Amino acid sequence: MTSTPIMTATEQPKYCYIVTGANSGIGLEATKQLASYLHLRNEKSVTIYMLCRSEERTRAAMATIGTPDILQFLKFDGSDSAETIQNHCVDKLPDGIKVEGILLNAGGFGDNKKQQKDKKQQSSSTTSNNSLSKDDVPVASSIAQANLIGHAILIDRLLKADKIDSSTRIVASGSEAAFASGVPMDFDKADFDGILQGTASLGGIPGVEYGWTKALLALYWAAFARHHPDLFVVTVSPGSVTTTNLLRQGGVNPFLRTVSKMAMFLGGSHQESVAAKRYIDALLGEERASQESGSFWASRKGYTKDYGDVSNLTICKFLKDVTLQEKAWNAVRKFVPL
Ligand SMILES: NC(=O)c1ccc[n+]([C@@H]2O[C@H](COP(=O)([O-])OP(=O)(O)OC[C@H]3O[C@@H](n4cnc5c(N)ncnc54)[C@H](OP(=O)(O)O)[C@@H]3O)[C@@H](O)[C@H]2O)c1
């Protein structure tokens, strides 16, 4: 747990937290819990940056949080180019500000197929090569952009700008769908590049792309922890919550919504406050004694019970496989321009 000195009204904030997808659902609840925690500690030198797609929705969300003075909106979309993420987010942080924690919460099922197609067409029209974006990197699927690629770029750019260091706690949003969807997943044979580009054949089973994306996410952050042994990152699943906008996202068709609701009914669900506390405990280091960098914490029973490190579960042995971690690392890094 960190301790932040109190500043006078004329000073610039010296410390900050970053939350992506902070305008809705578990991200909003986590922002509320964080703001309340900082307020109770009278942490006036702190800003919470809410990195979201819509300023309007974020301003409305801010109005529901009791401490609007410590909140700031920055525009962030996981489908943005690295240059845009640099301009809109990284360059907007004041010089010398210390980033205490980053909650990479944005994500879900992505946009619907039509939007994906539009984005690919839009992207290919700006370049001479149809499979490359204007950054000369491949174009990721909407679901990969939302959960993983935008976040990988954000952390990469913050690192390059010296805005994060060994005391920054990075928390990525995982899901039990990475291992408990009931669909067999052959990690050795799987085409990680194709999964991230949305071109891999995944059998047409509803929701399976989400499970694969969250699995690759956990492998990527495990690899990141090995590549950056001085930094701290943990993947945390908030557990199943039915009251958020997750199942209303564009990438969820009526059939997938029904299947997901049934899975959540059978696997259990809990309140947004309980889900968000998992994030906050990890962000503030409440679990520091037991959470290792690179680990994946989730429900070990169903979708809400027995919260802990899942890497020792038989079904999760892929997480510790360094070859698979590197396979995910290499696949994701293709989308992160140098
Ligand atoms: N609910 C669950 O049962 C559950 C279980 C395990 C894991 N999770 C994970 O928890 C996280 C939060 O989900 P939630 O249930 O709170 O759903 P939610 O209410 O739909 O919140 C998702 C947030 O992510 C943002 N977002 C989506 N795509 C984005 C993109 N391309 N770029 C930037 N922001 C984007 C959304 O922004 P807009 O408001 O602009 O759409 C929204 O703020 C997700 O990563 C989800 O996968 C949820």
What does this structure look like?
The protein is an alpha/beta fold and 338 residues long. It has a single domain (15-333), classed as NAD(P)-binding Rossmann-like Domain (Rossmann fold, 3-Layer(aba) Sandwich). It has 10 helices and 8 strands. The protein has helices at residues 25-40, 55-62, 82-88, 113-125, 142-160, 192-197, 208-227, 254-267, 272-284, 322-333, and strands spanning 15-20, 46-52, 71-75, 98-104, 169-173, 232-236, 296-301, 305-309. The chain has an 8-stranded mixed β-sheet with strand order 3-2-1-4-5-6-7-8, sandwiched between helices. Helix 1 links the parallel strand 1 and strand 2. Helix 1 packs across helix 9. It is globular. It starts with 14 loop residues before the first strand and ends in a 5-residue tail after the last helix. The structure holds NADP nicotinamide-adenine-dinucleotide phosphate. NADP nicotinamide-adenine-dinucleotide phosphate is lined by residues 21, 23-27, 52-54, 57, 76-79, 105-108, 145-147, 150, 173, 175, 237-238, 240-241, 244-246, 249.
